[in-house]
């Protein structure tokens, strides 16, 4: 039995989701005539209380389109040093938008309004124009940490005072919403634009949504075309997204409780040195100095346990919809049986 904890993106559509996809009514979405894509966009916009939404092939694309919508070449984007938009999108902020980044030294991918205020350059001809603040909830490289909503409200105030746009990279926002008992509406109200991934914990095979005002999404429609992300009968994919929003949000709590069970297993292992605080479905832990990371990962692979090495003996496991209870039992057995 292979136990794949590399990411919550490794899931495959369930028979029910596949059936919804097969039965989708489709059209050509470039002409806005795919009824299922239109239904998904309307559903998501309504959920978050935003005017409009646009369905894109990936979360990278929704973030990159948002950056393009909110910036001009030469502008500076303020984000955390761990942020996905800076670290894991191939330098897209520079490549696609000609903008630069000011990174904040936050905690588990989160920062305070005070830190954000210090990151704003002076209003003077020498400095780049700060036009956008990006926050990520939950944080990916920060180990699935959730933000304190009050801090997000303070950062919003700062954005308003300095006429900066406010974008949420909510690839895993539903994980935070479930843990903190928050609502999509409160996030919709706070942010100018939001990215939501359907292909992470929600279990769809493909797709992300960008949400915003009518004006923002009209611009996004143009940029999605330029970035090569306008698809044709994408209703088959959108149907999976609708199924995911209807069925797979509340169950994220189950992924979180199983992440806690893995934490309990790791605590008992002599070859695990530090475990980062786990709030959602991402578990980050360290192995001691005398254990080689590559050797460790290879050994895990031999045991049919797949995880991610993040460098410097930092390792990551992510629980998800296809991680069964039998796998959890097996994982415990296999991890207890090995020595380093
Ligand atoms: C996964 C992820 C994305 C987008 O990823 P894609 O693989 O391009 O869909 C964006 N932000 C965060 C925080 C992510 O974890």
Describe the structure.
There is one protein chain. By secondary structure, the protein is α/β, with parallel strands linked by helices. The protein has two domains: 93 residues, Aspartate Aminotransferase, domain 1 (Alpha-Beta Complex); 233 residues, Type I PLP-dependent aspartate aminotransferase-like (Major domain) (Aspartate Aminotransferase, domain 2, 3-Layer(aba) Sandwich), CATH 3.40.640. The protein is 42% helix and 16% strand. It is built from 14 helices and 13 strands. The strands form three sheets. Strands 2-8-7-6-5-3-4 form a seven-stranded mixed sheet, with helices on both faces. Helix 6 packs parallel to helix 7. The two termini are 22 Å apart. The relative contact order is 0.18. It binds pyridoxal-5'-phosphate. Pyridoxal-5'-phosphate (PLP) binds next to helix 3.
Summarize this entry quickly.
The chain is of the alpha/beta class and 340 residues long. The chain has 14 helices and 13 strands. It has 2 domains: 3-8 and 251-337, Aspartate Aminotransferase, domain 1 (Alpha-Beta Complex), CATH 3.90.1150.10; 15-247, Aspartate Aminotransferase, domain 2 (3-Layer(aba) Sandwich), CATH 3.40.640.
Distance between the terminal alpha carbons, to the nearest Å?
A: 22 Å
Give the biggest beta sheet. Answer: 7 strands, mixed
CATH superfamily of the largest domain: Type I PLP-dependent aspartate aminotransferase-like (Major domain)
The counted number of beta strands is 13
Order of helices and strands: EHHEHEHHEHEHEHHEEHHHEEHEEEH
What would CATH call the class of the largest domain? Alpha Beta
Number of domains: 2
Mean pLDDT over all positions: 97
Contiguous uncertain segments of 5+ residues: none
Which ligands does the model contain, each kind named once? pyridoxal-5'-phosphate
Evaluate the radius of gyration: 20 Å
* CATH architecture classification of the largest domain: 3-Layer(aba) Sandwich
Strand arrangement in the largest pleated sheet: 2-8-7-6-5-3-4
Helix content: 40-55%
Class from secondary-structure proportions: alpha/beta
Range of strand content: 15-25%
**Overall geometry:** globular
CATH domain fold name of the largest domain: Aspartate Aminotransferase, domain 2
Number of helical segments? 14
